[in-house]
Amino acid sequence: MTNLPNPRTQYTTDDFPKQFQEPPGLQNQMDPLPDCGETSYVGSGKLAGRKALVTGGDSGIGRAAAIAYAREGADVAINYLPVEQPDAEEVKKLIEAEGRKAVLIPGDLSNEAFCQKLVEQANAELGGLDILALVAGKQQAVEDILDLPTEQLEKTFQINVYSMFWTVKAALPHLPAGASIITTSSVEGFDPSPMLVDYAATKFAIIGFTKSLSKQLAEKGIRVNSIAPGPIWTALQISGGQPQENIPEFGKGTPETPLGRAGQPVELSSVYVFLASPESSYVTGQIYSITGGMPTA
Ligand code: NAD
Ligand code: MG
């Protein structure tokens, strides 16, 4: 008899302590620490020899993807903001512990010139590029649209949407047939919360971008898919993504998931790997929901 875990209790169901950090927040200051697979993700050579660029790779979902990619045999470049250097250094150590190359490229994705430089540097230092995992994102809850500053509106669209255009345009000359682009959308791109008007609009946009681009790039043999997470315990949420009163019951209260808890980043790792690997050879233009059961159709 195997010790089969119950998904309701496989990860913590405790209330989370309230905790605010200025965005983007440092994962290593969170209580409890998110689980990005640091001690648990086991690879099996699915991405041997591959070369991946992961935005937002310092923490949360991007860190989970970066760790899994390295454990599956890929060399990995990660992007993050300069203030996140301590989180990024932890990821670098984890990648190098697998005998893989880790390239750290801090910088701001809301700048087109930086997006171009990021891709060129990743391609040069990895000696090629065949996985583009676009995970970085900005989420700031604002209850009333009258209080939504234009600066936030612009930054949220630049980081969440424009940067995808800029990085993909820079990467395409380098991506071979068989390469995979993976965007990160959200349950907010299907069933938006009232206090996330700007963020939700970007997540709908990412879904449209993914579906359109997948059709355009199919003839090149490049697949484009998206992952739509539900409530996942990450720095994004405690640094203004949610009001602090939602933090204790995040994932079981507001928002409420059928599985009754927040997800952990490691619970997305296998899908970031699957969509990057040739195992998903007949999958393109799709949105994979990992939401604890929250509906996305
Ligand atoms: P996270 O805070 O750990 O990661 C987000 C990352 O975005 C940061 O680490 C930061 O490096 C990056 N980032 C933000 N602004 C940037 C900028 N200007 N330039 C460069 N990088 C920047 O949080 P996460 O939850 O792992 O977020 C990853 C993705 O998952 C985001 O796109 C988010 O919208 C999406 N998502 C998260 C949840 C959730 O509940 N946590 C749910 C649905 C979707
Ligand atoms: Mg971070």
Automatic annotation (TrEMBL):
InterPro entries according to UniProt: NAD(P)-bd_dom_sf, Sc_DH/Rdtase_CS, SDR_fam
Coiled coil: none
Biased composition (Polar residues): 1-13
Pfam families: adh_short_C2 (PF13561)
TM regions (residue ranges): none
Alphabetic keyword roster: Oxidoreductase
Lineage: superkingdom: Bacteria
SUPFAM superfamilies given in the database record: NAD(P)-binding Rossmann-fold domains
CDD domains cross-referenced by the UniProt entry: SDR_c1
Region listing for Disordered, in residue ranges: 1-38
Keyword presence, Ion transport: no
Family of this protein: Belongs to the short-chain dehydrogenases/reductases (SDR) family.
Protein name: SDR family oxidoreductase
